[in-house]
Please model this.
Amino acid sequence: MIRFILAFAAALSVMGQLAFAQLAVSPLSIKSGEDTHPFTVEMADTPDAIRQGLMFRESLAPDAGMLFDFGEVRAASMWMKNTLIPLDMLFIDASGEVIAVARNAVPGSLRSLGPGVPVRAVLEIAGGRAKELGIAPGDTVTHPIFGNAGG
Model:
């Protein structure tokens, strides 16, 4: 029975990893003070990808993340169900301004995290990176979904 449970858990983990192999990847940068921090992000822009998020991931590179594009400004809250690593969540308005930062969200937590105001997107990066890079509300995320990136 234990072997079956372990095999099932391993299969779920692999399925979770495979789901991400199909997400588009895009460059993004965060302007914080005089510094610009480049990231490569996976785009969660479908209902399934938004629901899945970074669940079951065992690691996240320091310059990687996931950008949740809601397609419009709306109320948003996030949780950490089935998420194995701590994350920083940047809540971003339609112009690319960081409205709020949830730092080091606890893996597996069902606590709802949100800014209490509508946002266009949420960027998840490795836990602790926002503090390390000095990212805070008022900083600017540059990406095509905000209309503030060239090309």
Observations:
- The longest strand covers residues 64-74.
